[in-house]
Amino acid sequence: MVRVVVDAMGGDEKPEVVLEGIARALEVDNDLEVVVAGNEDVVMPFCAKHARAEALVTTEAIEMDEHPTEAVRRKKDSSIVRGCRAVRAGEADAFFSAGSTGAILAAGTLIVGRVKGVSRAALCTAMPGAAGHMTTLLDLGANADCPPEMIVQFARMGTAYSQIVLGVENPTVGLLNNGTEETKGSEAALARHAALAATKGINFSGNCEGRDILTGGLDVIVSDGFTGNIALKAVEGTAKFIVSALKAAAGQSKKVALGALLVKPAMKEVAALLSGDRYGGAALLGLKAPVLVGHGATNPDAIMNGTLTAARCVRQNLCGKLAEAIVEAE
Prior knowledge:
The protein is globular and about 60 Å long. Strand 1 (2-7), helix 1 (15-28) and strand 2 (32-38) form a beta-alpha-beta unit. With 330 residues, it is α/β, with parallel strands linked by helices. Helix 1 (15-28) packs across helix 11 (300-315), helix 3 (68-74) crosses helix 5 and helix 6 (148-166) packs across helix 12. 49% of the residues lie in helices and 17% in strands. It starts with a strand and ends with a helix. An 11-stranded mixed beta sheet has the order 3-2-1-4-11-10-5-6-9-7-8, sandwiched between helices. It has 2 domains: 1-118 and 286-318, Isopropylmalate Dehydrogenase; 122-276, 3-Layer(aba) Sandwich (Isopropylmalate Dehydrogenase).
């Protein structure tokens, strides 16, 4: 059995949304146990009704607007802190929360701990592309300011993720920039490009642009967390706009409505791919155990998929294999 701690208090929605997602995950995966962290009145009734759910009763919750590190140090009985402690103690194999990204990063780093040789953990996800191709994108918001050596480490971790999780033999790596030319970009971008180009063991293909995230031309795209988070949110916003615009157009004429009806299944599939709900969260690469971060504005499907993805990371020994890759690269 794989044991995943899920934070019932995380996210912008009510705990019931998280609990519904956990219930769906338990239905899908018969070899999954979920440790549900949260207030007693939330987790106890739920766990009493589900055989493979265990309550981790906590008395505090970290809010989205709190200072992440201060909150983690002050609220020692919060669902995020207690959940990460359970992982560190070996009482669970992975942790998933749709709560404060900063608090999850702080708790993951301070409590679960980084892999030896990793300077900072990075948020990473696999983005869908043309012809079923998946592109590993990082950092998605964990580190706003990144020196060149940190970007190089992200490239190494992204390469390992692409190989281990997606099965890519020799992943190509691109640096997210405002142009593909080698001389394009800010001073920081130029320094990052030079560092990547000089690093052995990375199949560096040069600069790439935002449109390359979904075209499937690259296996790994690296960026600082500030830029990467904007790019990710822009993609997710585009998915929502497409669905909204199609609905609006369908209401304006019978012809368009008929056409929309015909393409509706395909459009829903595309929107689902881009929304992020299918994967449920981003992995914090560089930690000793899987820690995944979901969207604050979450839903039951996203919670289910985030929980299942956390379990999959455990079964594939992602953290152990990534640690080996980092040691070999040093």
